[in-house]
Amino acid sequence: MPVRTFLSALLTLVAMVAIVVALPSMWASERVIDADGFVDVAAPLAHDPQVQAFIADEITDQVSSRVNVPGASTLIEPFAKRYTQGPDFPADFADLVRQQHSWLFDPAPLRNSQEMQLDITAMVNRALKSANLPFVTSVPGTIEVPMAEGSGLDAGRYHTVGQQITTIGYVATAIAVIAALLALLIARRRGTVLIALGLGGLLAALLSWLAALNATTLVHRQFVNHSTGNALTRAATDALANDLTWWATIGAIAGAIGIVLGIVVRLIAR
């Protein structure tokens, strides 16, 4: 086998492997590990009725447990629901999502790790302010609620892993681009290289799609016995899985274009 052909084949193989690694890792870096990306994906869940109901129930429970008024939950619940369906809730929910991300991906505090606690004080007080109830207008102190008790979601659990995935994503992307360009530069049959790169894109898309499907199944199974934070965690997982599926779709389209382009190049070269 000529050296030029061997090098082209080797670089093409390297590029294909790098593409398979780059797609899911770059998605994780940009849409999960990056705080702004995570908020972009999860914040629209503020309009999800199940999420609204979950937060309204938490507000009702937290206030009712802090006031010594018979039937307080019955009085508070309608106002909590109205708040979660109102214009102020999306911004407050985005802050809650950012807290969730910070808990998982920021460095763990210098204390014994504990499971995820999210501060809903602002939500509670905003709901009470709109309610204008005579027996309570705000709740003193900080109100933190546990999310997914028993799931092992400790503070900073994914900090190191997140950094590693981000590094892998950028390195794999750089390798894929450089190897693909070099392979095309030295190849005798550039159409074949394009077809191979397109197949790499399709394989990356398929694996990403399977990852999204399996992640949803695993998380739903893990939290089936955890009522606290269940709705919020499952909804966020579904949103992330849908986003990864969209990235996989884009990858599949790009791969298909590469294959078609490669076939055209080969036909022209005949």
TrEMBL record:
Keywords: Membrane, Transmembrane, Transmembrane helix. The chain crosses the membrane at residues 167-186, 193-212, 246-269. This is Uncharacterized protein. It comes from Gordonia oryzae. The lineage of its organism: Bacteria, Bacillati, Actinomycetota, Actinomycetes, Mycobacteriales.
